[in-house]
Amino acid sequence: xxxxxxxxxxxxxxxxxxxxxxxxxxxxxxxxxxxxxxxxxxxxxxxxxxxxxxxxxxxxxxxxxxxxxxxxxxxxxxxxxxxxxxxxxxxxxxxxxxxxxxxxxxxxxxxxxxxxxxxxxxxxxxxxxxxxxxxxxxxxxxxxxxxxxxxxxxxxxxxxxxxxxxxxxxxxxxxxxxxxxxxxxxxxxxxxxxxxxxxxxxxxxxxxxxxxxxxxxxxxxxxxxxxxxxxxxxxxxxxxxxxxxxxxxxxxxxxxxxxxxxxxxxxxxxxxxxxxxxxxxxxxxxxxxxxxxxxxxxxxxxxxxxxxxxxxxxxxxxxx
Amino acid sequence: xxxxxxxxxxxxxxxxxxxxxxxxxxxxxxxxxxxxxxxxxxxxxxxxxxxxxxxxxxxxxxxxxxxxxxxxxxxxxxxxxxxxxxxxxxxxxxxxxxxxxxxxxxxxxxxxxxxxxxxxxxxxxxxxxxxxxxxxxxxxxxxxxxxxxxxxxxxxxxxxxxxxxxxxxxxxxxxxxxxxxxxxxxxxxxxxxxxxxxxxxxxxxxxxxxxxxxxxxxxxxxxxxxxxxxxxxxxxxxxxxxxxxxxxxxxxxxxxxxxxxxxxx
Lengths: 320, 265
Known about the structure:
The structure holds two protein chains of two kinds.
Chain A: H1 2-16, H2 18-30, H3 38-54, H4 59-82, H5 88-106, E1 112-114, H6 120-132, H7 138-160, H8 164-174, H9 176-181, H10 186-213, E2 215-217, H11 224-239, H12 246-267, H13 278-319
Antiparallel strand pairs in A: 1-2
Helix pairs in contact in A: 1-7, 1-12, 2-10, 2-11, 2-12, 3-4, 3-5, 3-10, 4-5, 4-10, 6-7, 7-12, 8-10, 11-12, 11-13, 12-13
Chain B: E1 2-11, E2 19-29, E3 34-39, H1 45-53, E4 60-65, E5 68-69, H2 75-78, E6 82-85, H3 99-107, H4 121-132, H5 151-164, E7 169-173, H6 181-198, E8 202-205, H7 209-214, E9 218-223, E10 226-232, H8 233-237, H9 241-252, H10 259-264
Parallel strand pairs in B: 3-8, 3-9, 6-7, 7-8
Antiparallel strand pairs in B: 1-2, 1-4, 4-5, 9-10
């Protein structure tokens, strides 16, 4: 039973981060832009959601509002980079620290704002409990919501990146010289990609606040970029080959987020580790994920050397 | 077609590396011209092309393309009128996108991009036909990522992409320099074919004097930021490599100093 609980909690948390992972995938892989605004836009989504829900706004609408605010933040990062010509990492950091103050403003100076009205999860578990006449495990509701949003995002992104503008964004990230030579305004595409990415990340923050904390916490973005990158890399290393399609890749990075949180959930079950070790565990998992290609290469190289030795050992025997 | 008047360009202004690369270039390109450009190291050949393409903004002078003043038009807007092939075969294509996707990007060079689907079945047939003429078997690998192609294949594809929508002016910047001799010859033959067939106006920088003489109807020689020799028609057809070397020495007062040019002549 504890195994199942741990697994479920890992999966449901991972799914909350699915949208963030997709956002990070867009900037890091498609745009080739190391965007650190993530750490500010994730709690921004939560902050906006908390204030709106407490003001009586429909929680689904609050997710959309979070998305819009995230896009605005992404626009700022894009503006700093493409108009002010500030390097990507610094543009992201500037937006990030500006957002820290802005998020506190939105939360009226409070570090934590608890939801006083129904979140998406409470709303849906209420509906389902009434419908099925029993109490439904909240984890299943969370997982259901997470899967729905992840699927919706993957489908929409798949179609968007298949359009002319979507292809222009991909070309911009892949080869800006070629893109400009073919009439693409690469600055505009960079801004658009950042808006899309940060919109998704803020929506992810909104979901995380609604499904896990039932509150907005101003520090919840700490380490978000690392988790996003870890998810992207775990997903790619475990599931992707060169020729896989775009939709498949997006699904893979979402699964990467889920796997990351499942590992984390089980790691925290180990007796001598406690919740404050979370960041250290994160760093270890990410380091491992990032060095997986090197480890794979090392093993392949050892095998090759062994085979080589065997072959020439035989050859030597022939000559003797 | 294209009128360049008094185009000047200086790089690294105000530093020890300050270099005046173009010193007031005047050039009039007529419709149907196929001009080859030669010159020594640092003569300003590539800069000239980049000024036309809008990669660099000129410090002074005027650039008029087909009656439209494009002096201050940004690069991506000029792209509607220009086809470009670069020296680096990696530069003209997107490695992570498929052959078909690259062609679809090129197909939309002349229009505003929207939320329409970026490549349909009708287009695919058109691309297949275009690829067939390259005779590289690429028509059967339309979904292959361009990064998996060789340098020569990528350069041939870039050439096709540059001319998929007929450009007002085709800019070729030493586009065969990075290829092995056999592939270079093939890409060059293809270039000539495409230019002839579509009646394109083209400007080709080359370091190969034989190619410069053999191809095109007009030849210009650059030295130290100026055009020092401009020859067309009958006179150009009669040119020999020795004539060019002599011409350079009398005009520039020194021997031609292009390492690659001297090695390949």
